[in-house]
Amino acid sequence: TLEKDLELALEHYLVKRGRLKSVIAGYPWFLDWGRDSLIVTRGLIAAGKIEEAKAVLLQFGRFEERGTLPNMIQGDNAGNRDTTDAPLWFMVAVKDMLRTENPHDFLETNTGDRTIRQIIFSIGNSLIHGTDNGVRMDPESGLLFSPAHFSWMDTNYPAGTPRQGYPVEIQALWHASLSLLGLLDPQEEKRPWLSLARQVENSIEKLFWLKEEGFLADCLHSPDGGPATQAEADDALRPNQLLAITLGAIKNKDYCRRTLDACAGLLVPGAIRSLADRPVRKPLAIYHHGQLLNKPDNPYQGTYAGDEDSQRKVAYHNGIAWSWIFPSFSEAWTLTYGREGAETACSWLGSSIRLINEGCIGQLPEITDGNFPHRQRGCDAQAWGVSELLRVVRLLTYREEEKGQRIKGKG
Fold it and tell me: Distance between CA 161 and CA 79 in Å, rounded?
C-alpha cells in the first residue's frame, strides 16, 4: 500500500548521531537541518515510530539555547542558529507526541541537563523577550518578528524571497506553540499563554486577511523590525498560509474556504507552487551584483534551470513547486469541509504517486518545475516530502476511526 511504501521510504533518512538520531534532509547532498528534521518527526510519530521520533526530539532539544535551535548541524558544530521556525516546529512535534505518549512521562524525559518541559518553556519565554539571533514578539500584536532568510524560504544568494518581518506560517506556528504552553502551564495566570494565542489569532485575521483578493498575505514586511501594525502586507499568493488553517490559527470558515479556493490554483501533480503566476502590487525585485534578474511586478518563475545564482535560486521559492507542503492543502481542505471533503482531498494526494514512480523510484523529489510538464528537480529524494505525505495520508485515512467510520483514500 501507499502507506507501507512511504514508511519504508522514510527509514532511509533516519541516521544515528551519537546515542540519538537525526534526519538527513535529502539525497544526494543535504545534511541534517533543524526545521526539516522536526517536520519529519511529525511523520515518524504518525507512522508509529515513536522511539525514533523521541530520539530526534532529544537530539535537537539538547541544543536549545535561549529560544534557539540549530538551523543545521555540521559534525559537532551546531552554531548556525539562523532559523525562526526550527524551535516552533519542535513545539509542534512535541504536541503531536503528547497525543501518543503519557504526557507526564514524555515531558519529564531528560535531554541531559533539562527536561522536554523545561526546554519548551525556555523557547516560549525566550521568544517573547527576544532571542540572541533577533527573533522577538511584537507586544502590540503578539506576532513574532523574523529576520531575513530565517524561514524555510531562506535562499539568500541572491535574496530571492526577502521576508523580513512577520511571515504568515511563523505566526501559525507561534499560535500553535502558545496554545501548547497554555495547556501545560499550571501557572497560566502568571503567563497568559492562551490569551497571547488569542491575540495572535486576532492579529492574523486583522492584519493578514486581504479582503479583495480573498486570501492571507504571505508576509507583513518590516525591514526595520517595527511593529506589525506598521508593516507592509504583500499580496503574494503562496502556500504558506495553508499552515494557518492546519495549525488552527484561523477558524473563520469563510476565510478558510476562500483561502483554499485561491491556493487551488497553485497545485500541480504531487506538489504545490511556491508563488502564483500573477501580477503583484508589492513588487519583488531580485538583484545579483547590481543586475535585476526578474520582473518585479510579476516575479513568477516556473522553471528551475540555468545558472544557480542568477536563475535557479531566483525561481526556487518564486514559482517552483514543492512536495513537502503539498499535503497541507489536502489537510486544510479536510479540516474545512469535514468528512464530505476527505475523498476529494485523498484524490489530490494520490497525484503524488506519479512522482514516486518516476525519478528516484519509491521516493519523492524536493521540487518540480511549476511549469508544465513539471519536471522533477532539486534533491532526488527529500525527507519532509515523504514524511508529510505519509502523515497526511494517515490523518485522512484514520481521522474518523474513533467514530468507527474509516475513510478510505483513493490513490
Answer: 24
> Mean pLDDT for each consecutive 10-residue tract of the chain (411 residues)?
94 94 94 95 96 96 95 85 97 96 91 94 97 97 96 84 95 98 80 93 98 97 95 98 98 97 98 98 92 96 95 96 98 94 93 95 97 97 98 83 42 39
Query: How many beta carbons lie within 10 A of that of residue 401, not counting itself?
Result: 10
List of residues 6+ apart from 329 with CB closer than 8 A: 239, 242, 260, 263, 264, 267, 272, 345, 348
Distance, in Å, from the CA atom of 119 to the CA atom of 107, rounded to the nearest integer, reads: 9
Instruction: Measure the CA dihedral 93/95/100/102, to 10°.
Output: 120
Q: How far apart are the first and last CA of the chain?
A: 9
Closest CA to 26 of 395, 309, 366: 366
Q: Grid coordinates representing 319?
A: 514559482
Contacts of 41 (CB under 8 A, 6+ apart): 23, 53, 56, 57, 93, 96
